[in-house]
C-alpha cells in the first residue's frame, strides 16, 4: 500500500493534481496546511476523510484520506490545537491490517516533550507523517536547535525509525532546500517500508513524500538440497576425462543441476537462518509427539525427545552460522543497509521490486517486458568501438606469463567468497571441495587458457539483478543499479591474473604513489592523509590552497578497452596475459533477472564488466598516466574514480593559471581516452586560512566549475574553517542513522544475539570513526566526548540497557575499548604500518624519496610511542626491497614424514627422525633453531655442528616473531656455502605462513623469505622441516636449552615486529576500560562485571542476554530505579517499606521468601555468605549451571 505525505499549502486550487500520480495511485493521503474549511472536504469520491479545519487561522489544517473499503476512526489526542501544533491521529483497518496514521504540523518546530508519551503509547504499527519544521544534521541540515536535539534523543531511545533522511522536501524562494517533512514508522515494520521524494512540488513549496509499505503474504520458502558427494564424484569423472575447455563449464553445470533439488517449504514466517535440517527435525518432533499423545507410547515419546534435542542442536548451529556470516558482511561498513535488507527479505525476495515500470510515459506491468527494458538500459551500446593496432610482445619468460602453479589456484579459491553464482550455477563451495587431483586438473585447464588465450563464452556472460537505489522512485529504470552475477570459474582465474599483475605493478613501481585503491599497501587512509598534510603545510606556510574534485561520468562503463590494453602494454604487462585480458573484455553478453523472469541476451561492448574481479585493478592501470595532465606545481590524489587536484602557493594568480592549464590538459586527456567529466558535478573550494581577494574562474570545456564551501573526497568533507567539526558532524549524522536502523533487528525474537550486535556496532558504526583515524586523532577533547557518546548510544541498543546506564559500567560489560582511545591507537597503527611497509609504502615515490610529509603532531606522537617502547623506527622489521610473489622458492615439510605425527611416542619420533635424515638429507648441513619467551626475557637460539648463537630480542615480540627471527639469524650466522641446508624448527605456524606467503603475510615472514632467496642465489638447496617439540630430537633439545639459558649479558637484537607493537597497544587500550571501572565508585557497589562475550555461550536467546546484562548492571526496571529518574511516584516496597530495588527483591523482600529459599537450595548457597547482591551475583554467574538456575528462578521474582 502507498501513502503520500504532502504540505500542500492550500489544496483547493491544486485539486487537479490529485488525478495524476503519485496521488492517483496512492491509497492514503496525508496532507498538511490544507487551508480548508469544513465545507471544503469533498476532494475525491473514492476516499473517506478525517480532518482538522483551519478555523479562522491564517494557515494550517490537516487531512488524512483513506480508501472507501477501509474503516477508520479519529483517536482523541488530548492536545489543544493551536498555532504551534496540530495533530490528527487516525486508527485504520485495511485488508486485515491494523495500524495508526498520525498527521502532524508544527510551524515553529515540534516540541517532542509534549507528545512523546502519546507516540509511545501504541502497541500496533504507527506511521507519523508531518511537517516538523526541525533542522538537524541527522537528516542533512547544517544546523540544529534545542528542539531538534531533544527530538533526535527521543527518536534514538524510542521504537520508531526515521525513513527519509537525505533528499530535501522544502525549497525556499531563495533557492535553498531543506528537509522539513519527516516520515517515521514503527521499527517492527520498517524493513517493509520504503520512501522517496517526488521530483515535482505540484505548485507547492514542499515536495510530496511517497511511502510504500510492501505488505506481502509469506511466500513458500525454497531451500536447495545439494548432494555434494555425488557432485564431487561426478565432477572428478568430468575433470579426469579429456573434456574440451569450451565444454568443461557446461558439463560441470549439468552435474550440479542434476544433483540439486529445490525443496519448497510451506508459507510461514521462517527465521532467516531456517534450513532443511531444522525443517525435517521439526516435522519428526511434531509427528512423534502427536503419536505419543495419541497412543500413550513410551518409545514414541523417547523419539520425540531425541528429535527435539537434535532440532535444538541444528537450530543453534544454523543460527550461529547465519549471524557469523552477517557479522562478516558488516566488516564492510557500506554493507550495513544491505545486511538489513538481507535479514528482512529472506521470506520474500520480491519485496524490493515493483509491479509497474514507467517507460515513455506508459506503465509496463509484464515482467518479461520489464526485464528486456532493463537489459536495453544496462547494455547501452551507443558508443562505437575504435580498435587500436596492438602488439602483445610475446614474452613467455616474464613472471606474468609463467605456467600456473597449483598453489596459485589454491590461494585464488581460498579468497573467493561463497556468493551467488553466475548463470552456470557453479559455486565457490564446489571449488573448495575439490581434491588435490581435481585441483591439478583445474590448474591444467587454467594453463590451457593462458596458452591459447581462449576465454569460454560462459565466463563472459553476466546475469544482472537490478537493485533499487535508496530513496528513489522504483517505477523508473534509472532508479536501479546493476548487480552482476558472473561465473565463479572466471573469478578464480581472474584472481590468479590479479595476483600476478599487482605484484608486477608493485615491484616495478609502475603506479605513481598518488594513485590509490585496489592495490596492496594503497588504502583510502593514505589518499585522505595526503590531502590533509598538504592542507596543513599550506596553513603553516600561509599559502593559498585551492582544491578541485572531478567527477567521471559512468567511470567504469566508459573505459576505452583498446586504450586500456595499450596502457597495460606501456606498464610492462605484456605477453599472453594481455591478450587474455583483451579477449575477456570484448564481446561480452548479459541477461537481466527480474521478478522471476529472464530477459533476452544482449551484447555489451562498453567499458569494464560489472562484477568482474579484475575490473578495479584494470581501472587503476587506465588512470596511471593521469599525472601527465598536471601543470608544474599541481598535485593530485586518486582513489578508484575519485580524483582530487590541488595547488598551494603564495600567489592566487599563480594557482589560478596552473589549475586552468591543468583543467585544459585534463579535457584533452579525457577526449583522447574517451572519458567524460561532468563539470556541473565537479566542485572547487578554497581550503586555506587566508581570505581570497577575488574568486578565480576555473573552467572545464568552457563550463565554470562550481565553488563550494566544502569539498568531499572519499567521504571526508574538507573545509576552510572548523575542519574537525565538519568531519565530526558528517560522521555523527551517518552513525545516528545507522543506530536508528539497528533498532529494527535488535529486538526480533529470531534476531541477533548481544554478541552479534556488538560486532555489528563495531564493524558498521564505530568503524565510521576508524576510517579517517589519521585525521580524527587530532580531535579536541570535546569532540572525542561526542565520539564516545555515539559509541555508548549504539552499545545501549546492542546490550538492551536503558539510557541512564553509567558509561563506565556499559563499557565494562560490553568489553570494548573506549572509542576515543581506539581512534588514537588505530592512528598510531596506520603510521607504524607505513614505516613497516618501507620503500613499498606510497609515502615514498619511485625514487624512494618521501612523497608525504607527516604533520608535526603525528611526528611527536610516533616519537613518544617509540620512546615508551625503548626502541627506534630503524628497528621495525620492514618488507625486503624485493617482494617475493612465489611461495615455492624452497622446500617446506610440515606433514610429509612419519616422524611429524605427534601421536607417536617420543622415542619413536626420535628414531623415525634419524631414519629420515639418513635417507633424505644425508649430505645436508643441519641447523636447528628455537625461541623462548618468559617474564624476564624473549630469546632466540640456533645451533649447528660448527657453531651456535644466543640472542635476546625485544620483549614486545611474540613467540611467532621470535621463531621466525631465529631462522633468519641462523641463515646469516650458521650457513655454509659448500652444502645444502636443512633447517629444523618446532614452529609449525612460521613454516605454514612461509608456505602460504602473500603480500599480507607478516613482515618477518617476508624478511625470512628474502634471506632464503639470497641463499638460493648461491645455488644452495634449502629445506625447512617441522619437528615436534619436546620429542627427544637432540637438535631441538639443544636449541631449546640454549634459548632458555639467556641472561642479561647476552647480546640484544633490537628488531621488533609492527604486528606485535599493535597487539601490545590493543591490550593496553582494553586494560584502560577495566582500570577505569576498577577506580570508579561502581566497583564497590556492583563488583566485578564479566563481559557479555563470556556469558553468551551459557545463554539461549536475546531476551536472556538483556535480562542478565540488566541484572549485572543493576538496571532491571524497578520502582526504586524509576523513581530515581523521576519516572515513578513511590519507590518503596508496599510490604517491607524499603526501597523496592533489585537487591531488595532478590535478597530481602518477604513476598518472595519461599522462592528465595528454593533458589538458595538449588544453588547450594549459604544465605549468610550472600548478604549483598554483589556477592550473590559473583557466585551466580560463576558457571553455566548456576546461571541457568538463576534465569529459571527469576520468573518467580516477577523479573523475567
From TrEMBL:
Gene Ontology MF terms in the entry: nucleic acid binding; RNA-directed DNA polymerase activity; RNA-DNA hybrid ribonuclease activity
PROSITE patterns found in the cross-reference section: RNASE_H_1, RT_POL
Domain RNase H type-1, first and last residues per copy: 921-1048
Gene Ontology CC entries for this record: DNA polymerase complex
Ranges for domain Reverse transcriptase: 448-718
InterPro entries hit by this protein: DNA/RNA_pol_sf, Endo/exonu/phosph_ase_sf, Endo/exonuclease/phosphatase, RdDP_mobile_element, Rev_trsase/Diguanyl_cyclase, RNaseH-like_sf, RNaseH_domain, RNaseH_sf
Signal peptide: none
Entry keyword annotation includes Membrane: no
Highest classification ranks of the organism: Eukaryota, Metazoa, Ecdysozoa, Arthropoda, Chelicerata
Organism: Araneus ventricosus (Orbweaver spider)
Keyword tRNA-binding: no
Any Pfam family hit: Exo_endo_phos_2
Keywords, comma-separated and alphabetical: Nucleotidyltransferase, RNA-directed DNA polymerase, Transferase
Official protein name in the record: Putative RNA-directed DNA polymerase from transposon BS
Amino acid at each position: 500500500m502507498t501513502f503520500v505525505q504532502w504540505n500542500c499549502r492550500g489544496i483547493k486550487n491544486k485539486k487537479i493534481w490529485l488525478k495524476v500520480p503519485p496521488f492517483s495511485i496512492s491509497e492514503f493521503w496525508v496532507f498538511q496546511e490544507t487551508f480548508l474549511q469544513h465545507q471544503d472536504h469533498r476532494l475525491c469520491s473514492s476516499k473517506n476523510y478525517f480532518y482538522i479545519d483551519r478555523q479562522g487561522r491564517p494557515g494550517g489544517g490537516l487531512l488524512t484520506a483513506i480508501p472507501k473499503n477501509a474503516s477508520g476512526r479519529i483517536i482523541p489526542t488530548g492536545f489543544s490545537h493551536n498555532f504551534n501544533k496540530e495533530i490528527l491521529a487516525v486508527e485504520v483497518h485495511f485488508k486485515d491490517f491494523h495500524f495508526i496514521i498520525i498527521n502532524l504540523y508544527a510551524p515553529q518546530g515540534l516540541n517532542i516533550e509534549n507528545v512523546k508519551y502519546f507516540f509511545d503509547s501504541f502497541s500496533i504499527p504507527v506511521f507519523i507523517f508531518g511537517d516538523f519544521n526541525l533542522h538537524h544534521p541527522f537528516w542533512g541540515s547544517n544546523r540544529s536547535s534545542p528542539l531538534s536535539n531533544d527530538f533526535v534523543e527521543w527518536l534514538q531511545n524510542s521504537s520508531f525509525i526515521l525513513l527519509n533522511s537525505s533528499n530535501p522536501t522544502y525549497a525556499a524562494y531563495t533557492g535553498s532546500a531543506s528537509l522539513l517533512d519527516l516520515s517515521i514508522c514503527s521499527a517492527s515494520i520498517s524493513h517493509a517500508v520504503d520512501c522517496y521524494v517526488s521530483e515535482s512540488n505540484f505548485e507547492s513549496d514542499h515536495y510530496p513524500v511517497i511511502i510504500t509499505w510492501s505488505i506481502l503474504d509469506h511466500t513458500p520458502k525454497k531451500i536447495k538440497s545439494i548432494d555434494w558427494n555425488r557432485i564431487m564424484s561426478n565432477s572428478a569423472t568430468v575433470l579426469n576425462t579429456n573434456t574440451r575447455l569450451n565444454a568443461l563449464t557446461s558439463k560441470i553445470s549439468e552435474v550440479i543441476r542434476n544433483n540439486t533439488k529445490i525443496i519448497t517449504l510451506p508459507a510461514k514466517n521462517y527465521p532467516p537462518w531456517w534450513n532443511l535440517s531444522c525443517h525435517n527435525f521439526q516435522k519428526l518432533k511434531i509427528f512423534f509427539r502427536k503419536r505419543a499423545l495419541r497412543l500413550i507410547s513410551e518409545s514414541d515419546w523417547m523419539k520425540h525427545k531425541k528429535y527435539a534435542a537434535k532440532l535444538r542442536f541444528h537450530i543453534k548451529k544454523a543460527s550461529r552460522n547465519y549471524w557469523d556470516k552477517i557479522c562478516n558482511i558488516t566488516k564492510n561498513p557500506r554493507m550495513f543497509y544491505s545486511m538489513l535488507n538481507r535479514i528482512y527479505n529472506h521470506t520474500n525476495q520480491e519485496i524490493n521490486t515493483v509491479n509497474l515500470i514507467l517507460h515513455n510515459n506508459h506503465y509496463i506491468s509484464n515482467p518479461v517486458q520489464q526485464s528486456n527494458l532493463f537489459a536495453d538500459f544496462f547494455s547501452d551500446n551507443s558508443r562505437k568501438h575504435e580498435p587500436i593496432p596492438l602488439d602483445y610482445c610475446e614474452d613467455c619468460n616474464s613472471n606474468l606469463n609463467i605456467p600456473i602453479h597449483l598453489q596459485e589456484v589454491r590461494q585464488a579459491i581460498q579468497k573467493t567468497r561463497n556468493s551467488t553464482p553466475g548463470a552456470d550455477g557453479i559455486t565457490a563451495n564446489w571449488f573448495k571441495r575439490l581434491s588435490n587431483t581435481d585441483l591439478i586438473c583445474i590448474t591444467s585447464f587454467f594453463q590451457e587458457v593462458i596458452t591459447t588465450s581462449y576465454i569460454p563464452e560462459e565466463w563472459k556472460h553476466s546475469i544482472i539483478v537490478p537493485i533499487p537505489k535508496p530513496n528513489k522512485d522504483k517505477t523508473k529504470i534509472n532508479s536501479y543499479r546493476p548487480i552482476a552475477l558472473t561465473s565463479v570459474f572466471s573469478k578464480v582465474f581472474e584472481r590468479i591474473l590479479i595476483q600476478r599483475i599487482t605484484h608486477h605493478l608493485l615491484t616495478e613501481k609502475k603506479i605513481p604513489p598518488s594513485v590509490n585503491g585496489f592495490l596492496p599497501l594503497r588504502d583510502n587512509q593514505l589518499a585522505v592523509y595526503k590531502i590533509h598534510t598538504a592542507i596543513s603545510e599550506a596553513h603553516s606556510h600561509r599559502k593559498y590552497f585551492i582544491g578541485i574534485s572531478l567527477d567521471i561520468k559512468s567511470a567504469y562503463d566508459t573505459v576505452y578497452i583498446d586504450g586500456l590494453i595499450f596502457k597495460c602494454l606501456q606498464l610492462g604487462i605484456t605477453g599472453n596475459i594481455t591478450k587474455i585480458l583483451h579477449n575477456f573484455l570484448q564481446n561480452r553478453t548479459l541477461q537481466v533477472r527480474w521478478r522471476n523472469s529472464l530477459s533476452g541476451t544482449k551484447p555489451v561492448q562498453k567499458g569494464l564488466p560489472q562484477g568482474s574481479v579484475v575490473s578495479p585493478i584494470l581501472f587503476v592501470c587506465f588512470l596511471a598516466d593521469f599525472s601527465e595532465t598536471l601543470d608544474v606545481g599541481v598535485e593530485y590524489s586518486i582513489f578508484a574514480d575519485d580524483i582530487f587536484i590541488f595547488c598551494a602557493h603564495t600567489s592566487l594568480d599563480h594557482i589560478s593559471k596552473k589549475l586552468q592549464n591543468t583543467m585544459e590538459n585534463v579535457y584533452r586527456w579525457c577526449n583522447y581516452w574517451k572519458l567524460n567529466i561532468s563539470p556541473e558535478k565537479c566542485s572547487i573550494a578554497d581550503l586555506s586560512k587566508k581570505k581570497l581577494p577575488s574568486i578565480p574562474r576555473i573552467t572545464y570545456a568552457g563550463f565554470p566549475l562550481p565553488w563550494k564551501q566544502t569539498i568531499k573526497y572519499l567521504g571526508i568533507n574538507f573545509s576552510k574553517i572548523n575542519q574537525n567539526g565538519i568531519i565530526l558532524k558528517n560522521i555523527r549524522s551517518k552513525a545516528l542513522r545507522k543506530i536508528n536502523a539497528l533498532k529494527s533487528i535488535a529486538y526480533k525474537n529470531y534476531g541477533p544475539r548481544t554478541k552479534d550486535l556488538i560486532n555489528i556496532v563495531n564493524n558498521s558504526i564505530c568503524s565510521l570513526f576508524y576510517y579517517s583515524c589519521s585525521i580524527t586523532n587530532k580531535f579536541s577533547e570535546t569532540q572525542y566526548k561526542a565520539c564516545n557518546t555515539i559509541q555508548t548510544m549504539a552499545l545501549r541498543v546492542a546490550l538492551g540497557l536503558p539510557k541512564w546506564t553509567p558509561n563506565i559500567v556499559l563499557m565494562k560489560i560490553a568489553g570494548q575499548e573506549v572509542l576515543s582511545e581506539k581512534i588514537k591507537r588505530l592512528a598510531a597503527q596506520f603510521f607504524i604500518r607505513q614505516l613497516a611497509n618501507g620503500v613499498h609504502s606510497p609515502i615514498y615515490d619511485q625514487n624512494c624519496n618521501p612523497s608525504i610529509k607527516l604533520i608535526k603532531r603525528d611526528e611527536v606522537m610516533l616519537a613518544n610511542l617509540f620512546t615508551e617502547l625503548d626502541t627506534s623506527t630503524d628497528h621495525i622489521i620492514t618488507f625486503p626491497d624485493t617482494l617475493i610473489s612465489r611461495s615455492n622458492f624452497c622446500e617446506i615439510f610440515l606433514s610429509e614424514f612419519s616422524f611429524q605425527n605427534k601421536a607417536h611416542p617420543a622415542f619413536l619420533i626420535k628414531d623415525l627422525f634419524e631414519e629420515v635424515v639418513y635417507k633424505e638429507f644425508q649430505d645436508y648441513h643441519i641447523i636447528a633453531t628455537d625461541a623462548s619467551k618468559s617474564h624476564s626475557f624473549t630469546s632466540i637460539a640456533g645451533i649447528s655442528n660448527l657453531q651456535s648463537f644466543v640472542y635476546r630480542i625485544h620483549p614486545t615480540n611474540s613467540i611467532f616473531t621470535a621463531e621466525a627471527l631465529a631462522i633468519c639469524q641462523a641463515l646469516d650466522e650458521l650457513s655454509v656455502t659448500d652444502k645444502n641446508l636443512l633447517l629444523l624448527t618446532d614452529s609449525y605456524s612460521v613454516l605454514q605462513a612461509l608456505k602460504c606467503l602473500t603480500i599480507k603475510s607478516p613482515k618477518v615472514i617476508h624478511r625470512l623469505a628474502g634471506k632464503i632467496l639470497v641463499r638460493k642465489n648461491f645455488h644452495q638447496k634449502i629445506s625447512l622441516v617441522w619437528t615436534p617439540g619436546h620429542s627427544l630430537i637432540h637438535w631441538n633439545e639443544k636449541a631449546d636449552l640454549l634459548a632458555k639459558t639467556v641472561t642479561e649479558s647476552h647480546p640484544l637484537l633490537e628488531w621488533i615486529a609492527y604486528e606485535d607493537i599493535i597487539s601490545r597497544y590493543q591490550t593496553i587500550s582494553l586494560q584502560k576500560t577495566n582500570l577505569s571501572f576498577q577506580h570508579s565508585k561502581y566497583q564497590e557497589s556492583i563488583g566485578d562485571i564479566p563481559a557479555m562475550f563470556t556469558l553468551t555461550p551459557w545463554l539461549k536467546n536475546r531476551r536472556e542476554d538483556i535480562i542478565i546484562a540488566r541484572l549485572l548492571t543493576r538496571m532491571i526496571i524497578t520502582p526504586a530505579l524509576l523513581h530515581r529518574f523521576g519516572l515513578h511516584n513511590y519507590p518503596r516496597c508496599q510490604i517491607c517499606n524499603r526501597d523496592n530495588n533489585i537487591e531488595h527483591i532478590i535478597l530481602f523482600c518477604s513476598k518472595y521468601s519461599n522462592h528465595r529459599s528454593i533458589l538458595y537450595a538449588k544453588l547450594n548457597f549459604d544465605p549468610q555468605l550472600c548478604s549483598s547482591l554483589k556477592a550473590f551475583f559473583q557466585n551466580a554467574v560463576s558457571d553455566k549451571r548456576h546461571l541457568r538456575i538463576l534465569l529459571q528462578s527469576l520468573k518467580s521474582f516477577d523479573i523475567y
